[in-house]
Specification:
Blueprint (H helix, E strand, L loop, with lengths): L1 E2 L5 E2 L5 E2 L7 E11 L4 E10 L10 E11 L2 E3 L2 E6 L2 E5 L11 E7 L2 E6 L3
Antiparallel strand pairs: 1-2, 3-4, 4-5, 5-6, 6-9, 7-8, 9-10, 10-11
Length: 119
Amino acid sequence: MLVDCSMKSQVRPDTFVLACGDGNSRLVSLHWTKWTGRAATARGVNAVNDCKPYCAAGTFRSYPVVVRLEGPQPWKKDPQLRQFTRLSLVFPGARPQGYQRVVTYQLGDSAIVAPQRAG
């Protein structure tokens, strides 16, 4: 399962907010092709605010993306459930300015903890 910004568990969500604080990055139109206890894969769109000239006046741009979930661990809120602890975005084509082709996020008990730099 995934833990969203409001600390609720989700299975195969069609949307998922990556930037919990401001909502400037979210996954939409997710279509899951794999969902097991060990990993999950979806295709969808990463809607990212370009924040130009600043975030409140920015424009959301859409980028096709493949989402991969891995690293299931017991959820502290309910240890009988397992949450994915790693979310990777793979941009097969265009991507937001400053993003690598693969961006990996560490997930925690309060949704997104921090992005990790891809090699």
